[in-house]
Write a structure and sequence with these properties.
Length: about 280
Amino acid sequence: MKKKSSILSIVVAVFFTLISIVYVMPIVEVLINSFKLNSFVNTETFALPTKESYAGFANYIKGMTFGNYPFLKSAFFSAYITITSTALIIICTSMAAWYIVRVNSLVSKIVYYLCVFSMIVPFQMVMFTLSGTADRLKLNTPYLIPIVYLGFGAGLAVFMFSGFVKGIPLEIEEAAVIDGCNPLAIFFRVELAMLKPTLVSVGILEVMWIWNDYLLPYLVLDRTMYMTIPIHIQYLKGSYGSVDMGATMAIIMMSIFPIIVLYLFCQKYIIKGVAAGAVKG
């Protein structure tokens, strides 16, 4: 039995190693091609850079300076939208989840199930209506689009926070009330500290989604004034629609690198938070 178990473990390890390589290879290829001259990206896609094809950091410089719209401006809008939207989602949905679990009324249950239902509604079903609504309500700027992201990110966040709050003993909050805490003090001084694993998990998941999101900013924002990094990448075109693939690969690498680093440092919190929010209660 031990020998069979050992063989099975090796087979499973090899299988998942191969799966991991398949998932990592596209990122490796983007990195390799970001250091090649544009003429070699299509002809020698899977080859390592040679003396003839090596472009150094010229692609990164060109990608940042190409066109009339500066890359740093796109990076600023992406960072602002991501940070603001994530903070708004975390604060609002954690408070909503705490209220839903503790009040446990018919209205709170309806709100909870509406949030859960929103998770299964495809974005494509509402994107045109949403675009028109955002224009009418003047939410079509980077400074107000976080409100739109709050609506789309609330479903998963409320679901995870609600599951975790159900596992927090009510006696802790009763003790805080005896000590003179009002509801706001209970939430910010007691609940937030205990919600840390789920806060981190939700934060990372929302950051990964919002930073890489292309469709919502493309539909809502005025592209002549505001571009996020994914939209900026699309407009890396020269005359007659020609695309500099080397520069494009460089910008793609610059856009995914911060998220890769963030995920590598915080991946353990994602597993803990998802398990805590989905299993408890």
